[in-house]
Batch of 2 targets.
Target 1
Amino acid sequence: MKSVSLLPRQFILPFLLVTTLFSLWGFANDITNPMVAGFKNVLLLTHFQSSLVQAAFYGGYCVMAFPAALFIRRFTYKSGILAGLALYAIGCLLFIPAGGAKEFGFFLAAYFIMTSGLAFLETTANPYILSMGPQETAARRLNFAQAFNPVGSLLGMFVAKDFILARLDQTTEAERRALADTAPSALEKIQVADLAVIVWPYAILGGVVLLVLAVFAFARLPDSTTHEARNSGIASSFGRLLRKPDYILGVVAQAFYVGVQIMVWTFIIQYGVNELGLAPEQAQGWNIVAMVIFVSSRFVCTYLLKFFNPGRLLAVLAVAGGVLVLGAIFLQGMAGLYSLVGVSACMSLMFPTIYGIALGGLGDDAKLGSAGLIFAIGGGCLMPPLQALIMDGAGLVLGPLALSATRASFFLPFLCFVVITLYGLFAARTRQKE
């Protein structure tokens, strides 16, 4: 039997270039999650107000996913990449005037513009990687490219921990509020210095993205059309997608998955600080441990897919994730934090598994359908602020057991895992009937 090429020779350089994009958006995601805690202390915000960082960040995905898909249908993959990198760089560089203005709203606008660019990149890079060679090896190419995403994520976490959180002024929130009443000029001096610490990594990132943009502008990307009829009926594609319950429910499940992922990784810091008295940079260290577990577990779960139905494995992982979240709620001391960190082992395969189930059998409609799954990343826009609202509350009393507001807020991630479990069971049953 003749072996099928993973990557034809003419695509080697374009493939290497496009895989760098996976690291770029991984870096942006995971340098940003800890900024919820950073802005809260620097600008004296509530948990809900600071969580608007995630609302703005993931709102860009939500708003731009379908426009990006339509853009690459009309033009080329290369055009989509260039547009995404331009928006990404502009958003990063806008941190400089936002820091000068000391206005939280300006930072939120910068995040939204940045992730509008990331929506273009994710909507474009995934199908372009799939198109770089035989259909039989498309999934392997995409899995290989996605392996570069955690590289950027880990680098973003280290920068957030060692170059931002550790360098912020150690004045506590209570001390800052006292300064706001007694010595506002002293507080302003601290805030200006802290905002500079936050701004410059993003400004440097913007410069790096501009360099990548220049490389792509001059690079020759062969066969960079989307291979779709330019006048194909978009409305008919939407109609067919809406009649596919696996797809529609998959978009819903993906929104809940992204929501739980962002909540767990964002609020590990608040859990460590509020429940265990850790410093923010120490708590961020546990986020890095969670990411290492996440990456390691992906290889294990990918192997298990050789033996288990994807929907059934998804359901098992979701049940395990829910149990570990309950551990974070009810277990005291470090055991609760260990449970929260362990959730990452269960989340590792969820995004690509839901993605694959939802797009299965869609044919040409999969390219537009993939935009719906990128749109579902908007779950990270809505759910962290909801959890933050709970965290700002008074806690919860369950009979003789009193839960702090931080612990009680993790019932929301638990409910997300319930939804994912139901989708996994649905997918397992429908695939078994086929």
Target 2
Amino acid sequence: MAHRAGQGHPGGDLSAADILATLYFGVMRIDPATPDAPGRDRFVMSKGHCTGALYSALARAGFFPVEELTTYLQPGSRLNGHPNRAYLPGVETNTGPLGHGLPVAVGIAVAGQIDAADYHVFVLTGDGELQEGSMWEAAMFAGHRGLGNLTAIVDRNGLQQGATTEDTNALEPLADKWRAFGWEVMEVDGHDPAALLSALAIPAERRARPLCVIARTTKGKGVSFMENQAGWHHGVPSDAQLAQAFAELDAELQA
């Protein structure tokens, strides 16, 4: 998709892909036939620049035709660089400016708490995004409210645009910070579907506090020249790189 469009964020798409697949095909209560059903689970893609992975998950889940993925980032396409709920079913809120997704998800979870609704709210954040003060204001309020219906997943690939998170503005000890704000915390391999499923499928009614799942991931997962490379935060593979990426990913699927 990024190769065809000539732009995109493939490094972050690949670090988040297993998380999104687990949510959409193993965890969330959703129905593309009734995307606005009041009882649906809600998902907020806070790292809204990684639309390649999000749109792929939405299409495979049946929210729009898979063939439409070929229009990614093209003029007039519904699949623009940041998700827009006015364009696509299944998109709960517009995201892209970092630091906004968790506050919105907290608001949705508070509404569910007030209404005694049984839906669950999931939000996927980048780790560099956690350098935004708005994220910690939202985290503090979620802990205060005891939002057991809220799960935040951190795509902890350790890289942001241009450098590592720890060289830019260190986040560790990250788990302790979430716990200090009143959250339950689990740390998992973000590319292990069984581990993700075990963490994300915990029924919300069993919790009195919000849950943060720190998913340890690899930027550019599965593509050797992208893995752990800050330069692939955004970028476009050449024809040769695209062929190599497909070959490596196919080999991994066959392993």
